[in-house]
Task: structure prediction
Amino acid sequence: MAKNEPKSDEAHVLVAIVNNHVHTVTHISNFLEGKGYRTVWAYGGKAAMALCEKERPDILILDAQMPETSGFDVARALPAQKILFMVADKGIGEKAKQFKNCVGTLHKPIDNRELDELLRSIFKLKKPEL
Result:
């Protein structure tokens, strides 16, 4: 990319990804970076809170169910943070939607196309031209 060439719209969005499974974090991060988003990540609820305070992401993709500090605990601690919850079932998804800072839910296993469409909708990003 040339120096004066503008970055993609996606490059203006910083996405934090938090899950206690390294594979999940890596998979989502690699996919989003391939689409042009910037990513940061953590492995657990307490680390998520520290990461969000330090990095100030535009959105947090957060596993609702993690050991020790759950995604719901994180949502309560960071009420101004936009959160896209990763959920294992419909009941957990309904609980996640009760949080005012929840901007959506993703059902596991994560569908990359659905994730991309959600982020584009949340941040009003155009679909890339083929």
Summary: Residues 12 and 37 are 7 Å apart (CA to CA). The chain has five helices and five strands.
